[in-house]
Amino acid sequence: MQSLDVAIVGYGPVGQVLAILLGSYGWRVGVFEKQPAPYPLPRAVHFDHEVARILQACGIAGELSRLTEPAYTYEWRNAAGEVLLLIGSKELSLSGWPESNMFAQPQLEAVLDARARSLSNVSVQRGCEVIALAETDGGVEITWNDGPGNRESARAAYAVGCDGANSFVRQCIGATVTDLGFFYDWLIVDLIPREKRVWDPINWQLCDPRRPTTLVSGGPGRRRWEFMRLPHESVDDLNNEETAWRLLAAWGMTPLTATLERHAVYRFQARWVDTWRRGRVLIAGDAAHQMPPFAGQGMCSGIRDAANLAWKLDLLLAGKAKPHILDSYPSERIPHVQQMIQFSMELGKIICVPDVEQAAARDAAMVAAAKDRGGPTAPVPGPAIGAGLLHEGDPHAGHLFVQGEVRRGATRGRFDDVVGRGWSLVSNGGDPGAALSPEEAAFFSSIGGICVDVSSGAAIEDTGGSYARWFDTNGVAVALQRPDFHVFGASNTLAGAADLVRALRRALTA
Predict the structure, then answer these.
(1) How many CA atoms lie within 13 A of 73 on its CB side?
(2) What is the pLDDT of residues 123-148, one digit of tens each?
């Protein structure tokens, strides 16, 4: 029987990222995907700066400029063309990447697949339908069919279901679902325009009660339209090519001006799974949550799941942490997902209004508010993760840490590429490692920890001022960053680095 460290069921972007991160740590990873070939048509079209940094950690940073189109504005307009809401983002964010990135999912999946298959300790098996998961003493036995009458099994220390909204793994752990009852049917239409043009704004929502409509980039050279089903229409009324072209005609899109990649009716959902772990079996991505697309956080949330889970499994498999650290996976991720779902719903409530009188009341309030603001509003900062493996009582714990441009000798680039990623004690005013005792330094080194001073004149220098601004704004002297780029804790003195390392050791081994 094949022996694995981690078995992953499902090979969409979440399963791919988890396989790459675990494989990069050196663990034997087996991926089992039911579909014999990748899905060739667009689905997700947006990821944010945090996810860009996670993809950077996967080793595909060099491909992202080719795959993505930054989006610096997101507008909401009414039927009269008045601005209800204008969100303006920055070219470079806290994570060192554009805050909003538009892409075509098949292209990203192809790059992630190539990266996963480049790792000799990662095996990807397609056309394998998992039919059983059984937790045994010290592991999980996974059974699948990979052809008529051909059943095989493997044993893994842990199994993770990244197998989508209809997850088999979720059924296996018997999890219940909290459904907020917020659902609407929308026709999704993906096009490749035949002529290159500048779309201004690049992403926007038409809040017209006669037909609420979304117009966004589908990645370089692609566009997406989404049309809400009206109360008098059936799904069958919408779900055909003739209807798609009829609705697109108002936007100058016809078979002569564009190629139709796909059309499909989706029901937007708002729900999360109540239990993400049972013993050695866990779930992530759409298997654990679904949300409306208006904030573009569906796939992003799943990739955050993978980043959160990968380093915890790494420490656990290496014997450097106790099994209880897996309890922090759902306790940290579920509250974050809940907030993202609520935010997506609030945005959805703006556009999903087919009633003329309700739309008029909405418009009056939002147009007035937009005029009072007098300009774009900044994107809402992502919420902190929930309670878990963090320095208790620390107001900085759980928030994202900065990634800026640094220089080491003749090498200049983003911190993770120049210095490395993982556990990082970072200061902007002296060597944080000098505060550690030999025992504390040895422990920190044993989990891959690095100590970095990014102040002016240091060996690793903050060339863009990102770190100086972060430390000054937050009033701290040293921060301990986790491998998923969240702050474990911070201190207002350099000597506090020792307290942070001691707290981390307790958290991992208590």
Answers:
(1) 15
(2) 999 999 999 999 998 899 999 998 77
The first and second tokens of residue 122, run together, are: 């990662």
**Residue 435: Cβ within 10 Å count:** 23
The answer for residues whose C-beta is within 8 angstroms of residue 407's C-beta and 6 or more apart is 418, 460, 461, 463
Q: Over 90: is that where the pLDDT of 241 sits?
A: yes
Sign of the CA dihedral running 251, 256, 257, 259: positive
Distance of alpha carbon 402 from alpha carbon 416, whole angstroms: 11
Tens of pLDDT along 453-469?
999 889 999 999 999 99
CA–CA dist 411, 281 (Å, integer): 42
Scanning the structure block, which residue is given the tokens 């390392």? Answer: 501
Which residues lie across from 478 on neighbouring strands?
427, 491
**DSSP assignments along 88-146, one per residue:** E--SS-TTSS-SEEEE-HHHHHHHHHHHHHTSTTEEEEES-EEEEEEEETTEEEEEEE-
Question: Which domains are present in the chain?
Answer: 2-65+103-178+270-339 (3.50.50.60), 405-509 (3.40.30.120)
